[in-house]
Amino acid sequence: MKAIVLLSGGLDSTVCMSVAQQAGYETVPISFDYGQRHFRELACARAVADFYRVKKHVLIETNMRAIGGSALTDDIEVPAGDEQRQDVPVTYVPARNLIFLSYALGLAEVEKAEKIYIGVNAMDYSGYPDCRPEFIQKFQQVADYATKAGIEEKKISLETPLQYLSKAQIVALGMKNGAPLHLTTSCYQGGEEACGVCDSCLLRLKGFREAGFADPIKYKK
């Protein structure tokens, strides 16, 4: 059995990778160099892939900086975290998961994988529309109709094992599975040490704190 895993090098995608491994799949991680500010995550993705001794790790280069419109792909300052924010944050990258899943779907067909794992989460919600369950459901429908595998009744299913978990539950699951969380990064700033103040850092720190574990990575604050 084979599964494609979207592996960013962050906390959620690494825990998602551990879930696919625990399920007994031969995992083929796929990572993206899309012109992101926090490109350090790619080194983390490679380290996680090496930890699991995968046979193949696919790196896709796609220039989303040419589109811009996000603090992660444009000359827009990454704001400090705000747990009270209700609108879509400026760190949202337009159509990112739509594009990433399309590449993963193509890879799944070529590799004859039966599943695609993605670590989207709707509980500790950052306001990203492409992390919602509704988006995953719609993409599954597209995948069923857009692929040779789909019309041959060999449908490739999307797996979102973290969809309804809190960040604390995600941390606890990763620890239980022995996921290499010390190799990950979550910071939007992308420095050698995590900033500790962006949305992603605050969510991660809160998750470790509520799960009762010390975060193994270094922070400036």
From TrEMBL:
It holds the Pfam family QueC. Coiled coil: none annotated. One of its GO terms (molecular function) is zinc ion binding. It comes from Formimonas warabiya. The lineage of its organism: Bacteria, Bacillati, Bacillota, Clostridia, Eubacteriales. It catalyses: 7-carboxy-7-carbaguanine + NH4(+) + 2 ATP = 7-cyano-7-carbaguanine + 2 AMP + 2 diphosphate + 2 H(+). This is 7-cyano-7-deazaguanine synthase. Catalyzes the ATP-dependent conversion of 7-carboxy-7-deazaguanine (CDG) to 7-cyano-7-deazaguanine (preQ(0)). NCBIfam families: 7-cyano-7-deazaguanine synthase QueC (TIGR00364). Zn(2+) binds at residues 187, 195, 198, 201. Keywords: ATP-binding, Ligase, Metal-binding, Nucleotide-binding, Queuosine biosynthesis, Zinc. Its EC number is 6.3.4.20.
